[in-house]
Structures are given as C-alpha cells and as structure tokens.
Design goal:
Blueprint: H1 3-28, H2 32-36, H3 46-65, H4 75-78, H5 97-117, H6 131-153, E1 175-178, E2 181-185, E3 201-205, E4 208-211, H7 217-225, H8 237-246, E5 254-257, E6 260-265, E7 268-271, H9 283-292, H10 300-308, E8 363-370, E9 390-397, E10 413-416, E11 425-426, E12 430-432
Parallel strand pairs: 8-11
Antiparallel strand pairs: 1-4, 2-3, 4-12, 5-6, 6-7, 8-9, 9-10
The protein binds fe (ii) ion.
C-alpha cells in the first residue's frame, strides 16, 4: 500500500464521518413526528432521505465495491428514488426512525470495513481515486442540502441555529467584461467529478458582461414595487402562465411588512436584508427580473467561464479563487450559516476578473437546458444524470449556503424544473458585450 493510498483512505474516512455528523444533526433536530411527516409534497419525509442515504451506500460501497452480501435487499425497491415520487413516499412502509438509524449505522460499519480492505486501485474506474466513495459522500451531502430545504418548508418553532454570515468587506456592484474566445469547460482531471461534468472540452464564448454579485433582495424588491409581477412584458409565455397559475407575487417565504418585506427562514421571521442575494426564486422569476433590468441570465458556459477562466494563463481553475479546496474565507458553504451572505462578504473568493460569490450563497439559475457535453458517457449509471437531459430542466451553478464544499466546484452542474423554488436558488445577470 502506498502513502498516497493511505492518504486517500484517511480523507475518505474523514469525509464520511464529517458528512454523517451533518446528516445526524439534520435528523436529530426534530422529533420522530417531524421525521416521518411530509412537510411539503415536493419533499420526502426526512426519515426517507436518511434510509435512502444508507441504501445507496449499501448498493455502491458494500455490495458493488466490497462484493459483500446485501444487508437488507428488501429495502432496495422502497428507497429507489425512481420507483416512488416524493409525494407518494409517506405512504410507503418505511423504516421507523429507530430502524432507519440502526440501518444506516450498520451500513456505515460495513462501508468502513470495505474501505479498510478494498484495493483502491483494483483497475476498475468505479474505484480509481476513491470515486465510488466520493460519489456516495457527495450523494449524502446532496441529501443533506435537500433535508435542509425540507427544514425550511417545515412549520413550527425553529430547531436549527447558526452564526450569521460574515459582514460586507467592501460592497460589490457593477459588472465585468469577460473577453471573447475559447476556454476549457468541464473536466477530465477532477477525481470526484460526476459524469455530467465530463469530458473537458473547448467552448468559444463571445465577449459578455456579467454582474460581480448576485441580484440582491433590495434589487428584487424594486422589481416587485415596479409592478414586475403584474406586467406580462417581462415574462416568457411559460413564465407568465406559471406566474398566473401559481399566484406568484414575491419570492417564496416573503410576506408584506409595512412598505417592505419580511421573510421566514427556518422558522424565524425577520425583515429581509437588502444586501443579501435573493433566494427561493424560480427560473421564470429570474428571467422576468433580468428582462425588466434590461439584461439576461448567463448561459451555463458564460457562468463557468466567469468562474474558472484565468486570463493570465488561459487555464480553467477548479474554483474562482484558484485550485485550493474551499475554506471558510472563500465561500459560504456547508450550512455554516443558515442564509446567503451579503454581496461583498467574500473578497478572498473572487475570480481573477473580480466576480464574487460564484461559489456558495445561492444556486444561480442559468439560461441553459441540462444536456450532456460532447462525448458524454453515463457513469456509473444512466439514472445519475442522463435520464434528466433535455428541455425540461434548467442548469443551476455554484452551490448555496447549504451545499457542502465537496459537493460543488467550478464544473459542478445542478438542474431543476424552471418552476421550482424550494431549493436555495437565486441568480446573477449578464448581457452581451
Ligand atoms: Fe438520492
């Protein structure tokens, strides 16, 4: 065994542990009634997410990588996300909270045993660089963010607490010019990148301007005050239909408060902070705001070029600030704070061109449909991303305050329906040069 392999094992074990601590926090913050309850038809009961995390870990790490016998084969179907829509999950014969906790702990013991004994370089692509472990760690982290979104939809007194995000170092306004020309989009080298981030390929992006910060609550409130929700000129036909049918008048969780707005965040209601990025808006709202503001949403390629392209070297970096793994000084990630940070709070996370907070705070809607890059191959299974390719889903980039530092990078792609806003979604603006 090489030192490198030892180091990879240590890293995997540490990440598994750190991630499970967050899962435990999210599932122990509420009582059993809240764990089995469905807080929104858009979400699973928290106890489903918990056992599903264990079920995927069992399938990939214990059975596939480890070649071990199934612990609970009868659970496979119950916790297969493709077999049961979220709205139907409360009616399933799910494990109770006690059973689910016991199951995930048993799976974890086996997975750690596999990690100790498995050859991390057995020649299989699934195992190279610890990919299967990285995939399962990211999967649990993604469900942690989903469970955090469920917490936001839960009624009742607050159960989560965190320090407020850092204050503004220097206010960030305006836009930067990103020169036209090719850049490398996607990756061949990021070891834990998922199939849809691959392969690396050249994309020629015409010059464009992009805002240095995401659209803030204050800016968004001006759109509402200007009658933006009542004027079909700003909305696409599909967006206007949805705005009418759903009765949208403001971001989710906002309420009128005198001549301003309050928002309820994890059970606490307070005036919205004008300098924080707006969150819980759908793609249609983002698109309408952009049109009203005389701009547009960035394409996915524009977003990634703004985030990764280094004009000094022409190289694409892992993150806007360079190749260094995210530290707290770079970005608001990992539920360290329970809200996005104001524009200008993360000077150290800026891109070479001075675009800020691309990573963390809020997922940013792009104008691009979710599709495979040229040369895409599904790995390790079609259901990870390929089955979602097509015009139904829009790409979101950059992660939110609820995204783990492992589960986002300059190449990471998220996707959702253009009407969804239970996710921690915001946006920034761009325009042609
Ligand atoms: Fe999942």
């Amino acid at each position: 065994m090489t030192i490198e392999t030892d180091r990879l094992r240590d890293r995997v074990a540490a990440e598994l542990l750190r991630t499970r601590e967050r899962t435990t926090l999210l599932t122990e913050a509420v009582d059993d009634g809240d764990l089995v309850r469905q807080h929104s038809p858009l979400m699973s009961p928290l106890v489903w997410d918990l056992a599903h995390v264990g079920s995927q870990e069992e399938l990939w790490l214990v059975r596939d990588v480890g070649g071990r016998d199934p612990l609970r084969p009868e659970l496979d179907e119950l916790y297969d996300a493709f077999k049961h829509a979220r709205r139907d999950r409360p009616g399933l014969p799910l494990l109770t909270p006690v059973e689910a906790r016991k199951y995930v702990a048993q799976v974890r013991d086996k997975a750690l045993d596999v990690l100790d004994r498995a050859r991390i370089d057995d020649g299989r692509r699934l195992v190279a660089d610890g990919f299967a472990f990285g995939m399962i760690i990211q999967h649990e982290q993604q469900h942690d963010e989903t469970m955090l979104a469920t917490h936001q939809l839960r009624a009742g007194s607050p159960v989560l607490a965190a320090d407020p995000p850092p204050a503004v170092i220097a206010p960030v306004t305006g836009e930067v010019l990103v020169p036209g020309g090719p850049f490398t989009m996607g990756t061949d080298t990021e070891p834990w990148a998922l199939d849809n981030e691959r392969p690396a390929h050249q994309v020629d992006v015409p010059a464009f301007h992009i805002d240095r910060a995401a659209v803030t609550n204050g800016q968004y409130a001006a759109f509402i005050d200007a009658g933006g929700y009542d004027d079909p000129r700003w909305w696409s036909p599909a967006g206007w239909d949805h705005r009418q049918a759903a009765g949208l008048v403001a971001p989710a969780h906002w309420q009128r408060d005198g001549d301003g707005w309050s928002a309820t965040t994890f059970g606490r209601t307070a005036r919205v902070t004008p300098s924080e990025p707006v969150v819980h808006v759908c793609f249609h709202e983002a698109e309408a705001y952009a049109k009203w503001a005389g701009k547009r949403l960035p394409t996915e390629a524009e977003w990634e070029k703004a985030a990764r392209w280094d004009p000094a070297t022409g190289r694409s970096r892992r993150y806007p600030w360079g190749d260094e793994t995210p530290e707290p000084r770079h970005a608001n990630l990992g539920q360290r704070h329970l809200r996005p940070a104001p524009a200008g709070a993360f000077d150290d996370g800026a891109s070479p061109l001075g675009v800020q907070q691309l990573i963390g705070d809020v997922w940013e809607w792009t104008s691009t449909d979710f599709t495979g890059y040229p040369g895409f191959t599904a790995f390790p299974y079609r259901e990870y991303s390929e089955v979602f390719f097509g015009p139904d889903y829009k790409v979101l980039r950059g992660g939110s305050f609820g995204t783990d530092r492992n589960a986002v990078r300059g190449t990471f792609r998220n996707w959702d329906y253009p009407i969804r806003r239970q996710i921690f979604s915001g946006f920034r603006l761009a325009r042609d040069a």
